Amino acid sequence: MNTFRRWLNRIKFKLRGKNHIVGWNMKPDEVHAFFKEQGKTVLTFFGFSGMGYEDETEMFRIVREVLSEYSPEITIVNIGGTRSGIGAAYPLAKSLGFKTTGIASSEAIDYPDEISEAVDHVCFVADKQWGGKLPDSEELSPTSEAMVSCSDILVGIGGNDISRDEMLAGKERGKPVYFYTAEVDHAKAIRRAEHLEQPKPGSFWGSAHEVFTEKDN
Hints:
Blueprint: H1 3-16, E1 20-26, H2 28-38, E2 41-47, H3 56-67, E3 75-79, H4 90-95, E4 99-105, E5 121-125, H5 142-150, E6 153-157, H6 161-172, E7 177-180, H7 186-195
Parallel strand pairs: 1-5, 2-3, 2-6, 3-4, 4-5, 6-7
Helix pairs in contact: 2-5, 5-6
């Protein structure tokens, strides 16, 4: 997307007024500095983003159960910024009194309507991809590096490659990681495969399920 269109999208964010944009092209260390200034424990949810859940009611139940163990006074609920998939948990977190944040790739600036209006603070990380590992490398992309470095507690509810890579990195760094199994929305997964001219999915559990077990820690 050209520079002018991206500028218009930034204006759209500002006119909407629901989110405080911390930065448009932040580096991971700048994002980390912002979170450190908040002086709270950062609880980050990982999962299916965009594709959604086959049983969204169960996803909400898990989120509510997890958050019942933490105090809004000392805890921030962080996700990837978008409204769909695991990001659908933002309104629930806010209704329970939690301050909410989002860490998203700068690629997401091209899709302002996909950013949840229930995110109090959004950090857009300068990145040429959506997250995960860099091509032909074990190094995390800037967005995923920011997600992992800023998170004190990592909670996964299903998830595919990006969530898997981020949770594995968190575990390698000695951070607590809790995982709950969940299936991606079957219909959306099938439509996506058809769009990409790929075979019908053989499983809907997601790649994170292949390396984590229920409530893994």
